Amino acid sequence: MLAAFRDAPHGRRFEVVRKLRRALAQPAPDATGDCFDIGEFKSFEQFETKYRILATELGYEGKVPAPGEMDFLHAMVDRDDIRHPGGIGSRDYFFLTALVSILAPRRVVEIGTLTGFSAAIIAAAIHRQHDGAGLPSGRNGITVETIDVQTRCLIDETRATGFEIPELIPDLVSTVQVHTGKESDFVRELGARNEFGLAFIDADHRHPWPLLDVLRLEPYVQDGGWILLHDIKLGTYGRDQRQTGQAPEGDTPYGAEWLFDRWPFRKIRSFHIGAIELPSRRDALIPFALRLMEEPFEVTGKAAKRVRRALYQSLTDLV
In terms of Cα–Cα distance, which of 157, 174, 187 is closest to 86? Predict the structure, then answer.
């Protein structure tokens, strides 16, 4: 608790320590950390098979892809030769599409927009699930709120963040709202607590940024909801490349990987992407978060101190 007192936001130190002690004194809920590995989505044929397996695992036995789902995925694969660096590959967006299609959330929040490819994938899947009853009736019809700290796209600063959205889903542009120059705490401006049906995090992977993003989003995701994480094998991938004498493209931090691997509740893995289920009791995340915060931060300097304070602030919001 000394670390919590020292690093908590000024003016709230006693409140933070008091709330953390109260949460840690509660009986720990049952948590097995069971991981269901559905494997890679390697082909269109596998998509339909794995879709049914995933639907059963999620409690939607018998659910099948929506009309137009396969046609849309074919169109996305046809674009793979012009896919921008940093975007998710077909094996990952097949899983993303399947999960969104099965859960059929009405509103999704995403952290890390980049070109807007994944936001478009999510919006299209939501539309197909709810098209029979019209578009979801969220805030002004927005189904995907995507947040990025960068105003200009990180991989092409001549273009705006999210520039691919109108190219990929021209008829659904109005259902996606891009928020730039913001961090994940901006979610409080976009929805009420317990409002979003799903969240997707694909932003700064350096530990503990993924953990902070999860803690900030958690109060705004529905009870027992899911949060998707990308690059959950990035650290190991970089390590393996270096061991074989290869130079990885860019940094390969462990933040998302540590978060997923050590998640003490239910989770689903598919290659480099995975989903974690939130516990029904929100303060059950506090012991896990405190343990993960003991790992050396990959964020350094003044940013590390700011992130640590933000973590303690987010922990108090869970109780």
Answer: 157
